[in-house]
Amino acid sequence: MHDTDALVIGAGPVGLFQVFQLGLLGLKVHVVDALPMPGGQCAALYPQKPIYDVPGVPVCTGEELAASLLQQIRPFSGPQHSHLHLGDLVESIRPLNAPLSGFEVSTQNGQTFRTQLIVVAAGAGAFVPKSMNIPGLDAPGHVHFHLPAPDALAPWAGQHLVVAGGGEEALETVAHLLQSTPEAQQPARISLMHRRDQFAVEPDLENTVRQWITSGRIGWIQGMPDHAEVEQGRLVALHVLGPDGTVRREPLDHLMIRQGLSPKLGPLTQWGLPLERKQIPVDMSTCQTATPGIYAVGDINTYPGKKRLLVCGFHEATMAAHAALAWLKPDEPQHLQYTTTSTVLKQRLGADLQ
Ligand SMILES: Cc1cc2nc3c(=O)[nH]c(=O)nc-3n(C[C@H](O)[C@H](O)[C@H](O)COP(=O)(O)OP(=O)(O)OC[C@H]3O[C@@H](n4cnc5c(N)ncnc54)[C@H](O)[C@@H]3O)c2cc1C
Fold first, then answer.
1. pTM of the entire structure?
2. With 90 as the cut, is the pLDDT of residue 103 above it?
3. Mutation test of ligand 1: which of 59, 282, 310, 318 has the most ligand atoms closer than 8 Å to its C-beta?
């Protein structure tokens, strides 16, 4: 059980900035995201693409923006980002009965948070990887959807890894494994598997990967997986229907499915919050939802004139933080303070007091 002032649902760019804004106001915050990495759409959908419209940052990639936002919340993170709970899905929200106040929030991995307020920063929903709908694919530890964290051991080191997919996510993964992975973490062999001999990627990346296939640096499997062969919990082969109509047995040790992510509103529809075209209506001056104590910011909310842009989400996170503090502490006067001049804010940030 985590006891906290605020729980942010979603560690996308807006959720991360929400942590910063709440932390700056002196509130204790936890944040949960279904993805194994922070950054939401920026990190999951366009990590290498340039963004040009973040104020004061002429250009940065999605991945760089996520890294900067993560760095910005470091003062409020506790040891090793202990407030950041990744790879977990918020399932239910239950209002607490008097004399208690606030909410009890439960997650898929069995975590419980008791919190005074909630900020929903859920974007278009929880990102869930698109899987492969074939019989027998039941080999926990051998089927993967994401790269491991940089400091974690790769489960496929020294073994045969098949990467499935024909889009940027799959081909970038192959390139990353070959070019940016320390030798000890590399698979002994990598094969790329896709149903067609066509890739939906930039020509440069396609040419590079095709050269690796032609030179034998990586293997190439064309076809539709038909079923998986699992022995004592270990994935040992995929049976793949090739373009010539023959099913071939393709031995492997690990399978990485990189066929994209799809956002699922899922549990959010059960939280008792009214939805308008899959978005949560809010009061635009506070970002409060129909339930006092629950706020919604970023792509998930809607109000007249709403724009699904980073800069709008960052503004909403600021408005929500101030409104939430006023709601939480109605008897305390709220004074707007600047980070440049406020000793209190500088202390919270661990900044130089000069
Ligand atoms: C290709 C592309 C390019 C873009 N370029 C720009 C640009 O140049 N400029 C710009 O301003 N905007 C751009 N955008 C839009 C911008 O990325 C979004 O506005 C922004 O990501 C919204 O941030 P967010 O934090 O609200 O939501 P998201 O980034 O969607 O993050 C929401 C997070 O919440 C998590 N989540 C949801 N539900 C749950 C749950 N129940 N439990 C746990 N976790 C949950 C999700 O897994 C996700 O990580 C672009 C978008 C795309 C797709």
1. 0.85
2. yes
3. 310
